[in-house]
Amino acid sequence: MTQDVEMKENQTPSQSIISSTTSTMQHLKEIAALIDTGSYTKEVRRIARAVRLTIGLRRKITGSVLSSFLDFALVPGSEAHSRLSSFVPKGEEYDMEVDTASSATQAAPSKHLPAELEIYCYFIVLLFLIDQKKYNEAKACSSASIARLKNVNRRTIDVIASRLFFYYSLSYELTGDLAEIRGTLLALHHSATLRHDELGQETLLNLLLRNYLHYNLYDQAEKLRSKAPRFEAHSNQQFCRYLFYLGKIRTIQLEYTDAKESLLQAARKAPIAALGFRIQCNKWAILVRLLLGEIPERSIFTQKGMEKALRPYFELTNAVRIGDLELFRTVQEKFSDTFSQDRTHNLIVRLRHNVIRTGLRNISISYSRISLSDVAQKLRLNSENPVADAESIVAKAIRDGAIDATIDHKNGCMVSKETGDIYSTNEPQTAFNSRIAFCLNMHNEAVRALRFPPNTHKEKESDEKRRERKQQEEELAKHMAEEDDDDF
User: Fold this and answer.
1) How far apart are CA 154 and CA 215, in angstroms?
2) Does residue 405 sit in helix, strand or coil?
3) Residue 357 falls within a domain, yes or no?
4) Smaller CB count within 10 Å for the chain: N or C?
5) Shared domain check, 68 and 195
6) pLDDT exceeds 50 at position 329
């Protein structure tokens, strides 16, 4: 008995690989059946669930499994089968074992191949090529899938099509050819608008905004965004991306208040697992708040998994908070490569004025009377005529209302006025107003997100209808829990 148990537990590597590949193949067949059912009943939620299951399965897909699945799903010898099979590597180890194991459960292909299943095969092959870092083959596969999509107009394909659009753009971005597909994306967005494909519209709009921002074409991005049709967001991921791109556009256009709101909302709505996306949102939000004259809380820099990535921005914030121009220059030079890679270098150049203003405010609070030469020395102005520069900086700060002081031109000094009670000004009212507006906005969004069963006020529910409603609510809850954040 002991020997029998040991023999069962100690499987050879080839047996374990065969069992895992057979299990993966079985899952893919179940997904194909789900797509077939969704196509027949025209239920988009089944197609969406199939896509989510595929994303969770993508790391287990090998070339042999994919080749077997294509033989199962597509008609051998067809145009789609020949095209997709050319992208899948041949001659892998254990091919014979997988074919033998799957042949017992393989069903005969249906006479009529659903268009959804064919498009899904393009999608899964494209996923495999990108995971294998075969970006040139991924470009060819994605281009073929887009050409096939143009001839199909079914709402049940919209979910798969939106993913194909995303990976189509990603494959060209990874090879540095993103500008080549801008015209194609515009044409696809036009077609999605005419077909009332709202999920495709929001996906393609984000891809076009990303395309423009990648080449710093902010004016064109804003023109497209302002003229694109508005509708309720269908995907949380796409809505988060839209808010992030909108925040970047507003920042470049000096509309810092709107940019701050968009960036913070994008970071708040993004899934916890989308760490890279949330880091990018926080980087831009930190710079926008600094440009507004605010100092971000320390807790922002100590979020789990973000400490290392936000370290340069923490030191930058410290330099702005102190108002030390020399420290600001040191941090800027120390992390210049990081800022260039994040494409935030131009924003950091704008912060120099804020550093000087903060330092000047600290000086005006500390001294009731100070000479302009001492102001230039404390601000560490490195110029040919620092006293004249200090005088112009102080004059501009007084005009803008940053400090409450006067300039004694005869004696060459700055005279600060006594600081009054802040509660006698409108600042507390402004702060409370912004907080109330934020809470009201959050409440309105929560109300819009509520879902109610139809006709509950007109008729009483029977036991059967109540059970059916509860089952639908459980499926909806599971759908929201399984919401895929891999695209971030």
Assistant:
1) 34
2) strand
3) no
4) N
5) yes
6) yes
Asked if 130 and 167 touch (Cβ cutoff 8 Å), the reply is yes
Q: Which of 199, 226, 253 is the last residue of a domain?
A: 226
- Alpha-carbon distance of 202 to 166, in angstroms, equals 11
Residue 439 lies in a domain: no
Range of the domain at 219: 24-89+113-226
pLDDT at 453: 60
| CA distances, 292 to each of 256, 301, 356, 422, 434 (Å) | 7, 18, 14, 19, 14
Q: In 228-296, which ranges are continuous DSSP H helix? A: 236-252, 256-269, 275-291
Report the mean per-residue pLDDT for the chain: 77
Q: Which residues of 246-270 are buried (b: 16+ CB within 10 A; e: fewer)?
A: bbbbbbbeeebeebbbbbbbbbebb
Q: Are residues 278 and 186 in the same domain?
A: no
pLDDT of residue 8: 37
pTM for the whole thing?
Answer: 0.76
* CB 356 within 8 Å of CB 325: yes
187 and 45 inside one domain: yes
Kindly state whether residues 172 and 276 are assigned to the same domain. Answer: no
Nearest 5°: phi and psi at 409? -70, -30
